[in-house]
Design goal:
By secondary structure, the protein is mainly alpha-helical. 42% of the residues lie in helices and 3% in strands. A two-stranded parallel sheet has the order 1-2. Strands 3-4 form a two-stranded parallel sheet.
Length: 230
């Protein structure tokens, strides 16, 4: 039996410990530390580059065009800041051609497209003019456009009325609700008409209502082109 001194045994046990640690390190690291091996951070970076490359191949980069909204006002328009002046002016000329001084458009036959050719009139007032004309039953005077709130008065010089033939209201047949639909007849005036018919029979003219406080001379004058008596 070999006998070791106490100091020798300590040295021997220390060597065994070093060998055991070395074996454990070799086992978990695969025996080598190749500098070409990808570390975890390198692996993630390579995956990200591969994913970005895949997206670039699958979805080619497209040129982004910024669309500028051109706002047209009824009396003027604002320039689109993202467009050069020359390009903006060509767009306005193409889509918003205006008639020249001395040229006219018939107010009763014009649609919204034609009305927008009048200087000062855009989409908003073009719609208002057509809608109000339908409610009236046709225009008999260009000055009736003054009754549209905010209408640009300078635009009236480009408008004319040829052969006005407004739609007539039979004041002796229509009910109160039907009468008050007209812009020139309010509820009280419609009630006065129906009360007169009930008490005195059919109206022969609007002069029959001249004694009513609801029918001053100016109200009778503007309503007269739109009524008939049968």
């Amino acid at each position: 039996m070999i006998y070791y001194r106490k100091s020798d045994r300590k040295i021997f046990l220390a060597l065994l410990g070093v060998i055991a640690i070395a074996l454990i390190v070799i086992f978990f690291t695969g025996g080598s530390n190749d500098t070409n091996e990808l570390l975890p951070a390198d692996t993630l970076s390579q995956k990200k580059q591969h994913r970005d490359s895949f997206h670039r191949k699958s979805y080619p980069q497209r040129t982004v065009y910024v669309r500028t909204k051109v706002i047209y006002r009824d009396t003027s328009y604002r320039r689109g800041k993202a467009l050069p002046d020359a390009d903006h002016d060509s767009i306005v000329t193409h889509y918003q051609q205006k008639i020249k001084p001395g040229e006219h458009i018939d107010l009763n036959t014009a649609d919204t497209t034609m009305l927008k050719m009048v200087p000062g009139i855009g989409s908003y007032f073009a719609r208002k003019v057509v809608q109000y004309g339908e409610r009236l039953g046709g225009y008999v005077s260009v000055d009736q456009l003054d009754e549209i709130e905010g209408f640009p008065l300078d635009s009236k010089e480009y408008l004319v009325i040829e052969n006005p033939s407004p739609r007539k209201l039979d004041v002796n047949r229509l009910s109160l609700n039907e009468l008050k639909k007209h812009p020139y007849i309010n509820f009280y005036q419609a009630r006065e008409i129906t009360n007169y018919r009930r008490l005195h029979g059919p109206l022969k003219s609007l002069s029959d209502l001249r004694l009513s406080k609801d029918f001053p001379p100016e109200a009778i004058a503007r309503l007269e082109p739109y009524v008939e008596f049968e």
